[in-house]
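Ticket reopened. Same input as before:
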Amino acid sequence: MKCCSPRYPFALVVLAAAAAFVLHSSAQEKSKAPEIRGWKQGTGWGWIWGQEDQLGALNSMTPETIAAALRLAEEGKTYDLGVRYSRNSYKWPGHSPAEVMTFRSPEGVKRQADNAFTAPEVNSSGQAWHSCALFINDNVGTQIDGLGHVTAGDDNHWYNGYKEADWGGDFGIRRCDAAGIPPIIARGVLLDIAGLKKVDALPAHYSITPADVDAALAAQRLKLQPGDVVLFRTGAMRYWGEDGADQELLKEHDSAGITLETARYLVEEFGSMLVGSDTSGLEVSPAPEGSDTFIPAHKYLIVEQGVHIGEFHYLEDLARDKVYEFCYMATTNKIAGTTAGFALRPVGVK
Amino acid sequence: MKCCSPRYPFALVVLAAAAAFVLHSSAQEKSKAPEIRGWKQGTGWGWIWGQEDQLGALNSMTPETIAAALRLAEEGKTYDLGVRYSRNSYKWPGHSPAEVMTFRSPEGVKRQADNAFTAPEVNSSGQAWHSCALFINDNVGTQIDGLGHVTAGDDNHWYNGYKEADWGGDFGIRRCDAAGIPPIIARGVLLDIAGLKKVDALPAHYSITPADVDAALAAQRLKLQPGDVVLFRTGAMRYWGEDGADQELLKEHDSAGITLETARYLVEEFGSMLVGSDTSGLEVSPAPEGSDTFIPAHKYLIVEQGVHIGEFHYLEDLARDKVYEFCYMATTNKIAGTTAGFALRPVGVK
Amino acid sequence: MKCCSPRYPFALVVLAAAAAFVLHSSAQEKSKAPEIRGWKQGTGWGWIWGQEDQLGALNSMTPETIAAALRLAEEGKTYDLGVRYSRNSYKWPGHSPAEVMTFRSPEGVKRQADNAFTAPEVNSSGQAWHSCALFINDNVGTQIDGLGHVTAGDDNHWYNGYKEADWGGDFGIRRCDAAGIPPIIARGVLLDIAGLKKVDALPAHYSITPADVDAALAAQRLKLQPGDVVLFRTGAMRYWGEDGADQELLKEHDSAGITLETARYLVEEFGSMLVGSDTSGLEVSPAPEGSDTFIPAHKYLIVEQGVHIGEFHYLEDLARDKVYEFCYMATTNKIAGTTAGFALRPVGVK
Amino acid sequence: MKCCSPRYPFALVVLAAAAAFVLHSSAQEKSKAPEIRGWKQGTGWGWIWGQEDQLGALNSMTPETIAAALRLAEEGKTYDLGVRYSRNSYKWPGHSPAEVMTFRSPEGVKRQADNAFTAPEVNSSGQAWHSCALFINDNVGTQIDGLGHVTAGDDNHWYNGYKEADWGGDFGIRRCDAAGIPPIIARGVLLDIAGLKKVDALPAHYSITPADVDAALAAQRLKLQPGDVVLFRTGAMRYWGEDGADQELLKEHDSAGITLETARYLVEEFGSMLVGSDTSGLEVSPAPEGSDTFIPAHKYLIVEQGVHIGEFHYLEDLARDKVYEFCYMATTNKIAGTTAGFALRPVGVK
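Engineering reply: fixed in the latest deploy. New output:
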């Protein structure tokens, strides 16, 4: 399959509107933005990085882009963009549940006495330890979807044409796993759609459109740049609380999100390198009637464009402080085979 | 128990030697190093942050210290300090094993047809997905030990006096879990002891002494500063390869590490905020004859001083490039109850 | 704590009623019932088997009792008393969830090629295999609660005085685990309370009383004998279906069950060796106002009397065929540390 | 694929020898053995039970055969044929490891206080409970391999032609899972090959041949009957001890077992319904040079003949007491999707 064919008609009128913006200059804009390699206006990224590539649009990061992003962080003020995940936390029901289990405990270590080095005669200080065993899914909590997470076609291929028959396996995926995702350090932009609409959180099933993108950029007096990490705030995470246990409330608001058109707008017109939000799936659900899939924005971004997706990012503090531009930093666990970074703690630094 | 009592005699001669260093000035030294709160030369950190504190020495991070650390990263060159973890990877045998299991696969999703939205009539593009279920321990791969990981005494207390009878539980620890560890952004210093000794990797059971610290600092023309993340290179990680499957070789070299005296030296004389290495346990093993525990440096650093420990950090690339001073950034997963950050990907940025 | 003290006043009037029964003789009654060791009318079983005992009332099984039970099975007609357990199945919410995950699959084995012996040149028949990894709780599906499952007192002791401080541990319990439960082969008796009441299933919170026991025995023309496995039918399992996925319906009917008095009646007057039902917890819930625990029948049966409890037994077919007396056979998995036999398949044979 | 074609030349001389036996009559032989349906001398069982069948040779069990088997148990003496399984136990390295983890503990329940019904004011007796969470493989400990465990061919089919493309899935197999295996009650026959050879345990890689079968039958003065469960004793389980922790010793002896010819001999000449042993894989390993698979007896028995395989059966006590004929009873867990009964406790009753 060839990706990125011009299947989706694009609203030229939207582009015209975008071009008409008059925006204040941000900190980064003051300095010359670094060159972004790979991206082409009008078509986006795509499968352009070679047959062996597993990174997609993240290939556009260079020391120059990273250094530029870090310069946005001169105040050293950090925002923790992760949500606390526990056995009680809201998740998409199709994923496996979680348990964090006390595996070794000081009392257990001493009662079982299964290690000679804890015997009182050689351990007079009564030292012991805690450790936990975890059963957990790799698509829960604050996430970055890897490029092998979703597949398309009868051949079940993912980004760059990797096919299940070749690269599937019993221990996770064997191409594009999350262990291979490099540290992501880039300019982060918050698009506060809930703030724009003056609501606590967008209502269920709200579709964030290209016009909403334009309006938020105008309201926030900001321009997007190629290579940005763009994060949409629906407001859903204001209901996460301690550990996301209010299933009903979270489920309701979790269904607001971007449309396929908005995904295209970001990638093809603005060169966004990673697109995310504060919901479990970024895109509006259910998909519009007539879609060729239940998650058209996932297919477009991940499979066709090689753009990673950020999910369940906690954006409340950024919004409260009106921090719309910042240095975004995220690292995924290096666990072989995983399909996403999960239960993450991305950071926004101003 | 009162921590930080002057139980351990301290080698004054070593201090004198340290004071005699004449060092070249580093990038950070050129600018005024920010004030570090909480630390006192001669005693270190300790339980000084209030009865409810769960962060220990990490409390010394401020926007100023973070901004200063970020200024070390002006080139934007990143070093991935994590090692890839899989079912085959070396770990301490007392921890639970790992499996990353393909939980949903495109073929499985289609064969089971257990979700209406994947039916061909509403999913003409044949969309499906991969996800994994993980069974994993929270003390494996590249780690940051949390302040509740190890305990001491008949009351099994950990940092700040949290006792098992009060704060233990079935779902991990209820104080000082790794979900509460803030993003760590600080000046990182590599002490390349293997390089100093001109060996590929330190031999089994090698004890890294305060004198080794001094010699490495001198050879690397560097000074330590309060608030540093100090990482010792034994060279063991050069044998990690793809995923740490060479159990015998790794086990052998994994036993080199620092002594209790070295831990004290770093904390009490230099104000190190986090101390780590490229082995599973930082400290030399077995503990010296006559120790009151099998892991005296863990007890001192974590329980008594509130200093987090870094483990299995991959330092080979930093050493190769002679990058001894850098911006260290690490974030742990936000999983409630966990005792450590595991399978991490800390980053060094120059 | 001393068990079995006469704390609970006992309804003598009930006994008198019981003594007045005139019952038809069953198959086993025709032959002389074997001597049952250990049991004493009026007090039951209790901690009488020695300080090291872990089996409780099951000690009363002998080759003679087993042979007598097997003689009830002369037709060779089997009834499967287990229910099918899956990730969707109803369970008490305090237990951990279940996943059965395809661990190795023929396609995965061939794609990964991680075993030399599956290479085509030495495996021309294309042989491969399936196996599953399970994450599961030991208190789900059709169960037999072990004698260490529940505890009482500030010392958290279980049957026979085993205390948590001595016999607890990180890998399950270290006394009375389900791996030590011998094969159970005994006379089984069905008490069809739903049938007696002429309802599909007992209503929520229905309390099965000693009078119900008497009435069912009279209606079924049956006598209890010491050493019996007594199974109460509430009818709840008629709603289990394929795998117990109708959570709401099952939860509703799951709350019917026996009272503490009924448990005492069975053990002290009739010498029941194991008491079970077709619900998750045998006893009525919630416990009567003023109880000293939320599960008084569990405390009495398991902790004080050493009587195992059977749960989620599928009794619909036995009831349909009016098979009220049969040979009951059950074996638990031999998994060290487990607190119960789970997802079992006990058998009734007529 | 058509199974059971006469691909394997059969040693007529062996048959002739078998016919020449003069054997003492056993308990069961005294009474007329029940008719066994389905089996044909010379060809065995095979795919004869209809397109929807999932049980294979177990279909031959009827109330009559079960009643006959139970008549072998008139003494009521039981032999526990299961081995205790723990995290330390020997298993085939290709399976996932096991952990039995204390999930809820009395102390944890009380410290966390996450259930209102354990509050002291409503729980004056201090009631609490233990439960365990298990991570375990379905091919460990004492096992009965289901008919979907192994597959053959490019289409990865198993017994009765079920193909992976149709009946595979993410949650285990969707045809022939172990949840569907009926209670197995049949005449059990021990063939004590280690006893015959007068060794503690057969040496590594020993091939048990049809001649060994004949010699054991002669020595034990026994005849096989259609419908038997035949168990071969290599003696390996004498090294299991508490929980099979002596990996080296067990691994060595685990490689003795039957040949493909022996499997054929049992099924085609004697009508064995289930064939098992005291090793992890029943058959000799490695497979003879030139085999078309690494497990030819598995392919023959499970895929082609629909005969379940028993593994890791503890036969030491039966051998010690020279109990060669008994009632074999085994029930597998009712866990949807599982490929085998695992950590079982089959019983031999005399």
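Chain D touches chain C through 104 residues (CB under 8 Å). The longest strand of chain D covers residues 184-192. Please confirm and we'll close it.
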